[in-house]
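B., you asked whether I could sanity-check this one before it goes into the benchmark set. Here's the sequence:
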Amino acid sequence: MNKPKHQFIAWCAIMITIGCAAQAVAAQQASSDGVRFYPHQQVAAAFAKGQKLLQASSGRAVYQVFTARRDGPGEVELHTLDTDIVYVVKGTATFVTGGKIVDARHISPAEVRGKAIQGGTPHHLSPGDIIIIPHDVPHWFQAVHPPFLYFVVKVR
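And here's what the prediction gave me:
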């Protein structure tokens, strides 16, 4: 993937985040068709279970918003269609992107999993950090200091 495309995806992610924040503020002031408001109690309950909050579309794009909780490392993931936008709420983790997937296996036509990543770039995530993983990029929570809570916006 070329640099301008990465910059475009990053710009889109920032605009989606700003738009979501603006919608949340507007929803607190007045409800209207299509606006969704999630009170903190509902968000906290979703984090306890790691649930999807929303699946919707905007134009031709489909997006999903998840709450996620990790108490340990996971499998390597690679999505051939989805870009992941991760916002860290609580905890810290070492998150590796890129490199080569060890023992890669397809779990569906658009999803690959594996045991580890050889090579790759480690990122030390902490509250307030955002990381954007374009489609076709392996990524892996290599180490997690629980509880690790984060939002994931999947854009297709």
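One thing to flag: The chain has two helices and eleven strands. Otherwise nothing jumped out at me.
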